[in-house]
Design brief:
Number of helices: 9
Mean pLDDT: 87
Order of helices and strands: HEEEEHEHEEEEHHEEEEHEEEHEEHH
Distance between the termini: 108 Å
Strand order of the largest sheet: 4-3-2-1-6-7-8-9-5
Shape: elongated
Number of strands: 18
Low-confidence stretches: 6-31
Largest sheet: 9 strands, antiparallel
């Protein structure tokens, strides 16, 4: 190789090196391929402040975080468990695969017929994402997702497990609601009555005035007692928020007929800031009968209850278990024993 050829090759390598350097330093480090249509997962679930979900022909659900607490449809406090499950899904979903082209027509038809629209907002109504959730795959290992404004569907899954992610999004209104049976703060209670229509001697009333507490029997001989410690009575009222329901039963066929019966137990609360009372009626369930409730003297006298239907004065019809409410289902003798 003569010197002239060597010089030419050397110059060529230098020019190639300069060209490579220029391309590396001046080109955009990001790919020019648009991947926005597959960015379904939220980076930080703490940035989510509102979620709006609606299915064609269905009733919309709106979850919104206000002062650190979640609310449903601007009316009810939310049950935190399904909200946390939803936020986890939103931040952990990932692509399982891209569906085959021949399946697109069926997939897109499902989006138009059963698609669940999901809008996710951050602070100040800043929209973070909008996408649609379709049906499950034939092998039930994934769910079809479609980003708003795009035409490419994806098969998504959660934690690479066989699960129907859509179930975390699509719940009935009552399933999003909190499970507190008595949504009243203890400090807002002026009087609380627990009465047993079939055994009046067990009934009692607790009054609260300026952090002073008093208990009174509501039986035939109305007895007011002062020896019960205020600390015990205050502790009883503080247990009110701990009473929980198992589920809402607002679609139960006997929802309207059961409240016409005389209940086993009735709880009435008068708030300090309101004249109206807030009440609940409890009806025991006998699992050995086909009838929805059992108010027979034989069954009531045994006090061997497991479940109750509960009718609340705000119109809700619910079911609870004895272990979920035993902290407040007391009688007068229980209370004066302290």
């Amino acid at each position: 190789m003569n010197n002239k050829t060597l010089y030419i090759l050397t110059a060529l390598f230098i020019l190639l090196g300069i060209a490579a350097w220029w391309i590396t330093t001046h080109s955009d480090s990001k790919s020019s391929i648009d991947t926005a249509d597959r960015q379904f997962a939220i980076e930080d679930e703490n940035e989510v402040y509102k979620i709006f979900m609606v299915r064609k022909g269905g009733k919309p659900i709106q979850l919104e975080k206000k002062n650190g607490e979640w609310y449903v449809n601007d009316r009810y406090k939310a049950f935190i468990n399904p909200v946390q499950n939803l936020l986890y899904a939103m931040s952990h979903i990932s692509i399982k695969s891209i569906p085959p082209k021949p399946a697109y027509e069926v997939i897109m038809k499902d989006f138009s017929e059963i698609g669940l629209k999901v809008e996710i907002y951050g602070k100040n109504q800043n929209k973070l994402k909008t996408y649609y959730i379709g049906g499950v795959t034939d092998d039930e290992t994934g769910v079809y997702f479609l980003m708003d404004g795009y035409r490419q569907p994806y098969i998504m899954h959660l934690d690479k497990k066989v699960s129907n992610v859509r179930q975390r999004y699509e719940l009935a209104l009552d399933d999003w609601r909190e499970r507190a049976m008595i949504p009243v703060k203890p400090e807002d209670i002026s009087t609380l009555e627990v009465s047993y229509p079939y055994e009046p001697e067990r009934s009692f009333r607790i009054s609260q005035v300026e952090n002073k507490y008093n208990i009174q029997s509501l039986g035939a001989l109305s007895i007011s007692t002062s020896h019960v410690k205020s600390k015990f009575l205050r502790s009883y009222l503080e247990n009110i928020p701990l009473a929980m329901i198992e589920a809402y039963k607002n679609l139960h066929p006997a929802k309207d007929s059961i409240p016409l019966l005389t209940p086993y137990c009735r709880i009435r609360i008068t708030k300090s800031s309101a004249v109206d009372t807030f009440s609940l009626s409890l009806y025991p369930v006998n699992d050995h009968l086909d009838a929805p409730v059992d108010l027979s003297p034989e069954f009531l006298s045994q006090r061997n209850f497991f479940r109750f239907f509960v009718h609340r004065s705000d119109g809700d019809f619910m079911m609870t278990q004895i272990q979920q409410i035993d902290m407040i289902l007391k009688d007068f003798q229980d209370m004066i024993k302290g």
